């Protein structure tokens, strides 16, 4: 009598157990993979600011001063009409960081907001772009000198756009000054940063190049971000004042209220990772990437003391820095 052969197979229960184990392993590995990816992105971001910092040093070696955060002067547009010509310092640095080809395309005879420069300003420059922020990085162009400082987003020309930069230079600073016990006042130090409108010499940085902030991360545009959450489309056109790599890159940094809803007030004492309009903002958990005037890079915690941040930004305040 022929015996029947029994084929080995998984039971349904065994299959479900295996699937559950695989799911648990994936759940354990996924955060580690995401952390590794973010570590790689932060390393690339750090390398970017290092390159820009070195380009600033090369610029200084050639012209004996740092680039101005922005240039604004009377000129004409490509149609021959009188206008203000606006160019940011990142555009000036292109020849000092292997960007000569793009520098040749970007015509600094005209402003970054001129139609003649649309091809150039919409190009992505890898060294100017942190890989961590999500979404499209092409943003509207706002140049208040030629738009009458309007706040109406409808006044923006939809045909004029530019590719975002993740890195900005310190031009000025809005901050609190005075004795906290008797009351502090909101003040505006217009030219306290290294990348002000005339540029600075190393000799001007009397606080020391290793104690003074040169560049900081401010990214995420054209999207408006507040404490890590996407906000509705900006209703104030001036939100786009800073952003394109070819535009106004010398920032007057704002201080913010604790809830992030008010800027530049007499109780505003926060700076980092609050709002990405005009203050340090990054997508690396808890920190932003910076480069100091000596070319060294590091991360700056969003919890850093406000006075320490103010002292870092001002090149001649004479204050002794605390830990950061």
Automatic annotation (TrEMBL):
Pfam families: N_methyl (PF07963), SBP_bac_10 (PF07596). It comes from the Bacteria. InterPro entries: DUF1559 (IPR011453), N_methyl_site (IPR012902), Pilin-like (IPR045584). SUPFAM superfamilies: Pili subunits (SSF54523). Gene3D superfamilies: Glycoprotein, Type 4 Pilin. Residues 34-307 form the DUF1559 domain. This is DUF1559 domain-containing protein.
């Amino acid at each position: 009598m022929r015996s029947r052969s029994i084929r080995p197979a998984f039971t349904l229960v065994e299959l479900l157990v295996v699937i559950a184990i695989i799911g648990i392993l994936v759940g354990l590995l996924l955060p580690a993979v995401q952390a590794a990816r973010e570590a790689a992105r932060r390393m690339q971001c750090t390398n970017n600011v290092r390159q820009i910092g070195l380009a600033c040093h090369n610029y200084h070696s050639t012209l004996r001063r740092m680039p101005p955060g922005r240039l604004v002067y009377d000129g004409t547009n490509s149609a021959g009409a009188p206008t203000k010509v606006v160019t940011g310092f990142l555009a000036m640095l292109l020849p000092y960081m292997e960007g000569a080809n793009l520098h040749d395309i970007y015509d600094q005879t005209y402003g970054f907001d001129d139609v003649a420069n649309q091809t150039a300003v919409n190009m992505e420059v890898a060294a100017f772009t942190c890989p961590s922020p999500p979404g499209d990085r092409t943003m509207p162009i706002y140049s208040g000198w030629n738009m009458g400082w309007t706040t109406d987003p409808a006044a923006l020309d939809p045909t004029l756009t530019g590719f975002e930069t993740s890195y900005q230079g310190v031009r000025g600073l809005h901050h609190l000054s005075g004795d906290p016990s008797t009351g502090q006042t909101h003040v505006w130090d217009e030219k306290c940063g290294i990348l002000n409108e005339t540029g600075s010499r190393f000799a001007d940085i009397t606080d020391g190049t290793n104690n003074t902030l040169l560049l900081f991360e401010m990214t995420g545009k054209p999207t408006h971000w507040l404490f890590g959450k996407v906000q509705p489309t900006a209703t104030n056109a001036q939100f786009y004042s800073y952003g394109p790599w070819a535009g106004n890159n010398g920032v007057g940094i704002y201080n913010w209220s604790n809830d992030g809803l008010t800027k530049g007030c007499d109780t505003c004492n926060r700076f980092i990772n609050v709002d990405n309009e005009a203050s340090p903002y990054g997508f690396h958990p808890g920190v932003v990437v910076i480069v100091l005037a000596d070319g060294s890079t590091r991360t700056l915690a969003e919890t850093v003391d406000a006075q320490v941040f103010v002292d870092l930004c001002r090149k001649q305040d004479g204050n002794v820095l605390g830990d950061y």
